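Workshop exercise sheet. Pairs work together: one partner reads the sequence aloud, the other fills in the structure field after running the prediction. Swap roles for the next sheet.
Pair: D.N. / O.F.
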Amino acid sequence: MLIIIFYQEWGMPQVFSIQIFFLYPAAVLRAAFFSNTTAYIVYLVGINFVTFLIAFKSFESFSHDWLKSFLFSVLYGCASYRLSDLTERGALGEVLALTFLPIAFVGVYHIFIGHSKKWVLLSIGMSCLFFTHMLTAVIFSFFILFFIILNMDVVFEQKKRMLDFGKAILLTLPLVAVFLLPMLEQLTDQSYYFQEHPMMYLHEGAGSITEYLTVAMRNQGHNNLGVLTLLALAIIGLHFKALSKFSRQLLILSVVFLIMSTNLFPHVYLSQTILNVMQFPWRFFLLITLCTYWVLAAEWDYLFPIAVNRWIPLILIVSTLGVAIAHSIQVPKKRKYEHYVYDFIDSGYLGWGSEYLPIEMDAEEIVTQKPTFYYDPNKVTLTDIDMGFGEAMFTFESETPTKVILPFVYYKGYEAEGEGQFSKITGEDPDYPGYCSLSVEGTGKIRVTYKETMLQKASLSISVITWILLGSVAGYGYMNRRKE
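Structure field:
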């Protein structure tokens, strides 16, 4: 699918954007005559509700304790890093990924420590991460790798658990085929800015511990780990020996990811590798947040004096809500906008989206002008030009084979249909690299549209069938448990 509103209506494939499935709720609200602002706000409220719910159910699957599950949902849902993503960065993709992260997390726990029959949770969680924010899926893969290293005894001694881990991987692949395969198809067809000229290198985005502490204490900034998260880390660290094995492992990983978030880690050696897709080392804050609050919720009754234990959940909840409210109040004025601003958004604004332009294109040119045809009027005549939503139609007349540059950024999937002699669409014209182009001769009429490739159609079928089968099996199992 091509998302036409990007690049001044030059178009951008869905595989390079936030997966559109999770944007349908907001689209439905907009279609129901809500303004952009109202639809967005209601959508964010819904995301927050689902985040609290998933956090609660995920922790309950781990602890079977209502109070601890509720505590974790509040701590995680109101975490400073998540709220910074929500308000200061407006990082909708990562906010959505944080909603589903606990599912993947508890899936890893069950495979290696808990009930390995629940391995499907990892597949569902990872699939949702890929569908919402691929970078978070990559980052969580680091967690899985390091967690496996800390549990090598399971790898060598409990083959059943490793078999279930393999099942989770194999199930995830068809679930996300609709995303992964089309993306790989585009990447193998041509090169893009993010591959050769990334907007940011890892070592450039790494901050110092002092910087992160300052941001946390000020309770402002897009890389705000949060003073409560740091305080919780310190308290948990003081009781390291009293923690369960799982909690100790999470604490170790939190410290490791904290170091990897700073300029103490030699990121410069990773900046020229595929790992540079992370862009900012402080993205590891999402793992630190999850691990820290998981341990705090699980072990709070062992971390504080018995005399005050009964008040700890209330104190933690009130403190978390207080910091969250303070954060919303302290948001700088330059980051606050009137509602009407969101109702007149410039679709030509690329932001970081320019990373997904073909490597030789001029991003400034795309931003500053509307889609237009380029051709030599002395060699070819174009008439009856009609620009629709994501399509173009025109009649041509030319005595010799002549190039026509079409008003679209080239991505694999564009096709030309019609009458007369014309070539296939490519993006390799030396004078207009990255633009859709074709050659015409004689007279005829052409309609250009973006159609799904065979691989895109096949991957969609694979994913839809897999999700239906998974839902059917899950539903059948649920009904059987109800009967029992």
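Discussion prompt: The longest helix spans residues 454-483. What would you look at next?
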